[in-house]
Structure formats: structure tokens, C-alpha cells
Amino acid sequence: MKKHIAILGSTGSIGTQTLEVITAHPDKFTASVLTAHNNVDLLIEQCLQYAPVAAVITNQAHYSKLKEALAHTQTKAMAGEDALSEVVTAPEINVVLTALVGYSGLRPTLSAIRAKKHIALANKETLVVAGELVTALAKQHKVNIYPVDSEHSAIFQCLTGEEQNPIEKIILTASGGPFRGKKINDLVNVTKAQALKHPNWTMGAKITIDSASLMNKGLEVIEAKWLFGLEASQVEVIVHPQSIIHSLVQFEDGSIKAQMGLPDMKLPIQFALSYPQRLKSDFERFNFANYPNLTFEQPDVKTFRNLGLAFDALHQAGNMPCILNAANEIAVDRFLKDRVKFLEMSDVIANCMAKVPYVATPTYDDFVYTDTETRKMAEAICDR
């Protein structure tokens, strides 16, 4: 049977690569729902090619253009944040791939889980912000969460068949980004153009800046805690510049398993959609002879403070990861708009973590309030 996929964020990097996977396996998958925020032109193009049941543009200013373009098709045009949460509950949907940017992924993911849809998770912020809430709800509704991030997919693959063997620790690998080896004085005046030049991966602007500041790895640390049921002390980060080993698991006997491959997001996307099967692909194969040296080094948390702030948020738990995430989203936005400098993003985040009220056992409403208040505070800090 074909799996019917809803792609939240179909016009972004993960979304477009997911459609490539679907195109390569038309007998296995069909794109039943496509969504975008602003890129209505590409969304229309995708709808005309893939003929989904529904398409959602969350920026309602583009709705009339979408509706007019799809009027002669069988695709239902919808608009707004509410439509995003509604469309994932459609009975034909089997898997919801969440590739939205940031906090915006939380609400529709919760709606999909309540509707008993399995989740292919590329939106790490959903678990960063409300990991305990999301995982408890998934357990209640017997919903599986399949990781799409390359690092978490690697851990997931290493754990397949190891269900009876306790994890001693996991080791998330980081490329180090474009500024690996740089010190604080080197980063005072870096530009967004420099920060957007990732050495190994092609990604959207927000995640690329997060990678440059090591916040992306910090968010992945928090995500890993919830995906794999770990304590904070069981998650480590190592810098691996070649991005060939995507992450590792160490078991109680000392054995380590690693998942390896060339940097290509289509592989973890395909595995999340096809699990437990591995589908044949034409992805480029790794050749050891081309990589005679795989190297590793400790992350520099003194220079790249965001990774340390993320570990602090993980240890404090409660709504602190929500504060971290909201402050970071505003800081990155202002950096991309040349309103704050690269190193100042960490100052914004630390300030918010110190001042936004802490809630030890937050509800969903607490997360909504925390996100709103943190954004206000971060905006005030950035714009003063």
C-alpha cells in the first residue's frame, strides 16, 4: 500500500528533497498535502505536479493567488495557521512530515498526533520546546516519531535491533560550521554572507546560521533527550569536520555503533518514510579511498556559547528550552537583518534565559505564553 504523506513546509530544503524521494518511489509514496508560508509560486508549481488533496498557504495574503491557480484542479486551497492544524487530520494521511521552521511546527504536530498520524520529524524545535508533552501524547495515541535530522536518524538506525540493550551514551557529531577553529576575536565582525556558507550541507538560512553558532547542535542535544529517552548526561557532542559519521551510540559493554554516509538529507528522509524497509536508491555512494582521514575534536563552548546555553536549558528543563528556542529565533532573525552581530546572538539568548519567568512543569498554555513573552523580550533587546 502507498503511504500518503503530508509535507508541512514543502517549499523548503527538506520539503523539496522529500518530494524528490516521493518522485523516485511513486509506488510507495504519494504527496497528499503540501504547505508553505510565503513561497506561493513554488507551492502552486508543486501542486500542479503532484496533485495533492489539499494545499495550505499560511500567509493568508497569498491565498487568492493559490486558490485561483488551483481552481481547475482537484486540490483544495486553504490558508492560515488553523488550516495547517486541520489538514493534517485528514483520514487519508498516514505520515506527517514536519519541515516547518522553528516553533511554528509545534501546534500542527500536536494536532497530527491526536489524529493518530505517524510523524517524520524534521522540525527539531517541536521537541526542544515541548518534548515531554509531545512524547507523552505520542505514547498515548500509539504514534511513532521517526527522526529526519541526519544525526538523529543515525542514532535511530544504530538502535534498530538493539531494543533490549541499554544505551550508555550517544555522541552527536557536528561539522563545526564555517567558523570551526575560530576564536572570539575572529568572530566579532563576521557577516551573514560568511555565516551562510556551510562547508558540507545545503540548508535554509535559519538552520545554517544555527549551525554556524552551534545552536543547531544544542537544539539537537535537547531533541535527542526526548527522542531516545535519555538523561542529559548521556548526550555528548563531538566535532567531525568531514560529516561522514552522522552520529554514534555507545552501549553498556563499551561497543560503539556508527552510521556513515555522504552528506545527503534524502537518505534520512527516505528512511523515515519507508521504515522499517530500506528502499533501493541512486544516492551517491561513500568511498573510503576518498576520505583517508576522518578527524574529531572537542567543541569550543567558550567561543560558541550557544551549545553551552543549550546544555544549561536541558539541565534546567521546564520551560527553559522554550525560552532558549524563542530567544534564538528572534536573535537569528535580527542577525539576518543586520540588527545584531554574530556573537551578540548569544547575549540575547542568555539575557532571556535569566529574565523570563521559569516554569518547572509547564502546560501547553505555559509554552505559548513563554514563547510570546520571550520573543517580546528578545525583540526589545535586539532593537534597543
What does this structure look like?
This protein is α/β, with parallel strands linked by helices and 384 residues long. It is 45% helix and 15% strand. A hairpin with a 4-residue loop joins strand 10 and strand 11 (256-260). 46% of the residues are buried. The model has no long low-confidence stretch (mean pLDDT 95).
Strand content: 15-25%
Q: Indicate the low-confidence ranges by residue numbers.
A: none
Number of separate helices: 16
Distance separating the two termini: 56 Å
Q: What level of helicity do the residues show?
A: 40-55%
Indicate the radius of gyration in whole angstroms: 20 Å
* Shape descriptor: globular
The H-and-E topology, N to C, reads as EHEHEHEHEHEHEHEHHHHEEEHHHHH
Could you report the average pLDDT, rounded to the nearest whole number? 95
Spatially, the strands of the biggest sheet line up as 4-3-2-1-5-6-7
Number of strands: 11
Return the structural class: alpha/beta
Largest sheet: 7 strands, parallel
Structure at a glance:
This protein has 384 residues and is α/β, with parallel strands linked by helices. Helix content is 45%, strand content 15%. The strands form 2 sheets. A 7-stranded parallel beta sheet has the order 4-3-2-1-5-6-7, sandwiched between helices. A 4-stranded mixed beta sheet has the order 9-8-10-11, covered by helices on one side.
Topology at a glance:
Elements: E1 3-8, H1 13-24, E2 29-36, H2 40-50, E3 54-57, H3 63-69, E4 76-79, H4 81-87, E5 95-98, H5 106-114, E6 118-121, H6 125-140, E7 145-147, H7 150-159, E8 167-174, H8 184-187, H9 192-195, H10 205-213, H11 215-227, E9 235-239, E10 245-251, E11 256-260, H12 266-274, H13 305-316, H14 320-336, H15 344-355, H16 364-383
Parallel strand pairs: 1-2, 1-5, 2-3, 3-4, 5-6, 6-7, 8-9
Antiparallel strand pairs: 8-10, 10-11
Helix pairs in contact: 2-3, 4-5, 5-6, 6-11, 6-14, 10-14, 11-13, 13-14, 13-15, 14-15, 14-16, 15-16
